[in-house]
Amino acid sequence: MPKGMRDFFPEEMIGRGKLFNAVKRVYEKYGFSPMEYSALEELKYLEKESSAEIKEMLFRIEDSDLALRFDLTVPLARTMAENPMIPKPFKRYCIAPVWRREEPQKGRFREFWQADIDIVGSTSMACEAELLACVSEALAELKIDCEIIVNNRKILDGLMEKSGISKKIEAIRIIDKKDKIGEKGAMDELTALIGEGKAKEILNTLTLTGTNEEKIAKSEKIFKGIKAGEEGINELKALLVLLEEYGVKITMDFSLARGLDYYTGTIFEVKMKGNDKSIAGGGRYDSLIGKFGGPEMPAVGISIGIERIPNVFPKNKTVSEVVVIPIAENNRKYALSIAKKLRANGINVELDVMGRNFKKQLEYANKMGIPFAVIVGDREEKECKVKLKNLSTSEEKELSLESCIASFIVPL
After folding, report:
1. CB 161 within 8 A of CB 231
2. Residue 37 falls within a domain, yes or no?
3. Same domain, 295 and 391
4. Domain of 291?
5. Do 139 and 122 touch, CB atoms closer than 8 A?
6. Which of 99, 118, 199, 362 could crosslink 301 through cysteines, CB 3.0-4.6 Å?
7. CATH at residue 18
8. Residue 367's pLDDT band (boundaries 50, 70, 90)?
9. How many C-beta atoms lie closer than 10 Å to residue 144's C-beta?
């Protein structure tokens, strides 16, 4: 097994499939349509707006100008640049794997799945509000209690401008890893970069306390006359009003930076309550598409990290709902006709292919966790009936095939 990669057996894939379907249902409720991309991208696209850290993580194809995609935003930006006439807004979702060549550790893999939604074509904060409402509902569908943290990169830009800092990108990257290195670590690194006085000024502004409204009031005084800062604050104010209509609560945190350099405005991170684990994130990237050779197009997106989601579905070894068991070999043809009719009604059915006897077939069904057995013998075949057995309770009923099919709608 390659380092940082995984195989998924049926009991895992069944649960992941249910998770994917739950997220898709919510995404489509909000009008997002599915899209897929090539796993490979040209290096020039992947490196276009990547940090030095991301560039080192690329899985490059030897003797070529190709590499595996590291996220799902760059492929979207590339396709939009190549297809600028697509009607706007363009709302798409993509649930797919991405690859990063980083050192594997608990909960972090080199191949992992993301569930992206993006809106291209509008600068309105209505886009951010819809994305956050949609992801909030998707996570609620998975019974995950989370906190949505929001900031705006324009506020960070305004802070750099106010403090007279020229090494903006480097400073923002230090801020981005503050949770990992701690307040003192951030202070030490910022001091080495910009000096102690400016480092203190930045960290004091980033750690404003109070309600969202109180933080905005304080920041309005700090950024008065600083255009970027004022724009960022006004966008957050507009977002708050829209989210109130959706009933979605957020926490403003001016220290949220998010590491990717292509963000230009609102940024967000979603954390699970109780363990502070980040489960989703994203932001606005209004300049990215234009850098791929297409016209300038505003865009914003958010991605759920599938690997970060706890197992919320019971583990099943099989998708089969029923096994059809002939009592004797001469009943096999009748068993096959029953299986065909059950399958025609959307019921997942297994038939023995191992030549096992009746007892061994029942043992297999129990071992696999198949909930029901349809048993057919000479008498059932003669009377055009079946015996339906609930394998968890051992309850049996003799039924017509029509009644048997209906029983899967209203289980025993």
Report:
1. no
2. yes
3. no
4. 10-308
5. no
6. 118
7. 3.30.930.10
8. very high
9. 19
Q: How far apart are CA 250 and CA 241, in angstroms?
A: 11
- 3-class DSSP state of 33: strand
Strand order in the sheet with 266-272: 33-34, 90-99, 111-120, 299-305, 277-284, 266-272, 146-152, 251-252
Q: What is the DSSP string of 70-111?
A: S-SHHHHHHHHHH-TTS-SSEEEEEEEEEE-----BTTB-SE
Q: Please tell me which residue, 191 or 70, carries the higher pLDDT value.
A: 70
**φ and ψ at 250, to 5 degrees?**
-130, 165
Residue whose structure tokens are 């009003």: 241
SS3 at position 210: coil
Contact 27, 134 (CB under 8 A): yes
410, pLDDT greater than 60? no
pLDDT digits (tens, 9 = 90+) for 92-136: 999 999 999 988 777 788 999 999 999 999 999 999 999 999 999
Burial class (CB in 10 A: 0-12, 13-18, 19+), 127: buried
CB 33 within 8 A of CB 93: yes
304 and 163 part of one domain: yes
Tell me which residue has tokens 């309600």: 211
Dump pLDDT digits (tens) for 299-339.
999 999 998 888 878 889 999 999 999 999 999 999 999 99
DSSP state, residue 410: S
What amino acid is encoded at 367 in this protein? K
Check if the beta carbon of residue 287 is closer than 8 Å to that of residue 264: yes
Buried b (16+ CB within 10 A) or exposed e, 256-294: bbbebbbbbbbbbbbbbeeeeeebbbbbbbbbbbeebeb
Per the DSSP assignment, residues forming a β-bridge with 60 are: 67
Predicted TM-score of the model (pTM):
0.88
H or E segment and range at residue 330: none
Greatest C-alpha distance within the chain: 92
**What would the mean pLDDT of 259-264 be, rounded to a whole number?**
79
Distance of CA 180 to the CA centre of its chain: 22
**Is residue 301 within 8 Å of residue 116, measured between CB atoms?**
yes
Within 10 angstroms of residue 14's Cβ, the number of other Cβ atoms is: 18
Structural domain includes residue 271: yes
**Do 87 and 135 belong to one domain?**
yes
User: The tokens of 259 are what?
Assistant: 């590491």
